[in-house]
Amino acid sequence: MNRTVWIIFFALSLLAIAAGLWWPREYPTGISCLFLTTTGYPCPFCGMTRAFLAAGHGAWREALQQSPVGALLFPGAIVLAVVSGWHGLRRTSGAQQSDPRIPRLVWMGAALMLAANWIYRLLAGLK
Fold it and tell me: Which residue among 19, 27, 115, 118 is the one 20 to 30 A from 108 at the CA level?
């Protein structure tokens, strides 16, 4: 992957971490879900912002109750910052290029986790 792309990932992950740490979790983000408004049921992504902000503030119980997958996004952003920062800042000879494609198994695992998270929120009656 291009060094510039890694640096962009690094900057975006730092921005997400900063938002998770300093955005007050008590205040609404101004984001409303069209799916929830239309159907009355939460979408697969509902609660992830609240869970991310709660995790950023160290309220892990609340984060996991809101959205288990959303709670995992905060430590995931930290891992992404470390990995992308390392790739973006290291010097390479150009001879070693890793394959940037994400394996199909990772995509399938992410889809299953998202589906399980959605089922959890529906069964728990969370909106």
Answer: 19
CA dihedral in degrees (119, 121, 122, 127; nearest 10)? -150
Taking the C-alpha atoms of residue 71 and residue 10, their distance in angstroms, rounded to an integer, is 20
Query: What is the spatial distance between Cα 50 and Cα 20, in angstroms, rounded to a whole number?
Result: 10
Q: What is the pLDDT of residue 96?
A: 58
Residue type for position 117? N
Length of the chain: 127
Rounded CA separation 84/78 (Å): 10
Q: What is each CA distance from 55 to 41, 50, 91, in whole angstroms?
A: 24, 9, 34
* pTM, rounded to two decimals: 0.83
